[in-house]
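In response to reviewer comment 3 from the previous cycle, which asked for concrete evidence that the modeling workflow produces usable outputs, we include below a single protein chain processed end to end. The sequence was submitted unchanged, and the resulting structure tokens are shown without manual editing.
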Amino acid sequence: MRHIFIILLLALLPVAMIAQESKGPFKASLYNEEYQLRMPINFYDEDITIPGQEMFGQMAGYLCKDGTTYCWLVVKADVEGDKAQLVMCNDYGSEDLKAELTVQGDSLYVLQHLSGSTLKVPNKGKWQKLPKTIEFKRKKTK
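The workflow returned the following structure tokens.
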């Protein structure tokens, strides 16, 4: 009986590991209060849709400013440990960039612009250029 339990446990271990991976640090809702930026992400399942812009389908995530519909789509995310290499483009498809998102602790994330177009968002009728490094906090889910 004991051997059967051990065999069953070993058989279910890969399933448990896959389930845990999908709840890793890169499945989160991030927020930057200073610039009022939201960044819903799921780099594991890539099942994020942009409200009102479902035509883009499911993706790894996006970044947008509160009160606007303009956003930057995360079109590719390669996770390696506590870092993810991102390829992002704006929702017009006219600009793209490479960035790195790093997890620092339980709730702090740092987005670092590496190359490509300047990261900018609409703000009161003008374009607001964002800094090359932005800190995000993980929003607590209910």
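The beta strands are 27-32, 37-42, 61-65, 71-80, 83-90, 96-104, 108-116, 120-123, 126-129, 133-138. We consider this sufficient to address the reviewer's concern, and the full set will be provided in the supplementary archive.
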